[in-house]
Amino acid sequence: GSSHFPQIHFVASGPRSAGGDMSPEFLVQDLKGAPLRPVVRGPQRHVSEVEASLKHNERARAEKAFHLHNKASSSVVDFITVASICESLELPLDCGVSKAWLHGLCEDVGVSLEDFLQLYGRILAAQTPAVRKAMENQHLRFPEIRSTEGQMRAAFNKYASKSALSSDELCKVFKYLGFPDVFGDNYEHFVTEWVACGLGRATLDFHAFVTSVNLLVDVCERSRAM
User: Fold this and answer.
1) Which InterPro entries did the record assign (predicted)?
2) Residues of the domain holding 176
3) Would the CA dihedral through 16, 222, 31, 49 be positive or negative?
4) DSSP-derived 3-state class of residue 221
């Protein structure tokens, strides 16, 4: 039989051991049972222009949302309106993440439609493939799930020592992945509480890392709802 796997909100976890067996169908079914969390990550390294280019349906959705929120029908909108547009597109921006994305744009000048389309493309490209697919309201397929897992595993491997992460390294991975820093302390409060409550361990394998990402996403959601 196969090992037990947690429902994955943001990433798809592979087998916990080399002997584990998980078919593509099992992964897809597991993900369908848990809606993906639209917790938006900040800018990511190595995002290509191709990845940031919008598909026809993505561009149409973004243009419609921009015009809907542009009450004055002017050529530009302010930063607050940009956040509202993203919210309506199911990409709510945490305050810190929002600042990171808007860096380089001038608030006094405003954001034009073309500026916003470029920004929206970069935001989508910075999310996991599974999340971007979910934004299209389409069923996830194995390639998106596997690609999403690959992104998370690459981040894990970047900071892991002997296939394990320390709590300090976990904070660094969260920052590297651009997740919202809800408490403004480089994720230290979250990681400390997670370990203290017995949910986490002093060192994490990849499976435990995936679980920590899911919990961080839940914390971000609750913080946004307050």
Assistant:
1) EF-hand-dom_pair
2) 140-221
3) negative
4) helix
Query: What's the predicted TM-score (pTM) here?
Result: 0.58
Rounded-to-integer distance, Cα 19 and Cα 29, Å: 21
Say which amino acid occupies 163: S
Residue 41 CA to residue 98 CA, distance in Å, equals 9
Per-residue pLDDT tens digits for 84-124: 999 888 888 888 888 999 999 999 999 999 999 999 999 98
Give, rounded to a whole angstrom, the gap between the first and last alpha carbons of the chain.
Answer: 42
- Residue 6 sits at the vertex; the CA angle it makes with 173 and 134, to the nearest 5 degrees, is 75
Residue 203 lies in a domain: yes
Say whether both 92 and 148 belong to one domain: no
- Do 119 and 149 fall into the same domain? no
The residue assigned the tokens 């607050």 is 80
DSSP structural state of residue 94: P
Element (H, E) at 9: none
Buried b / exposed e across 135-159, counting CB within 10 Å, b at 16+? Answer: beeeebeeebbeebbebbbebbeeb
CATH number at residue 113: 1.10.238
Q: For residue 138, what are the CA distances in angstroms to 38, 39, 79, 130, 209?
A: 15, 18, 30, 10, 27
**Per-residue pLDDT tens digits for 123-176:** 988 877 767 766 665 554 545 555 667 778 888 889 998 888 888 899 999 988
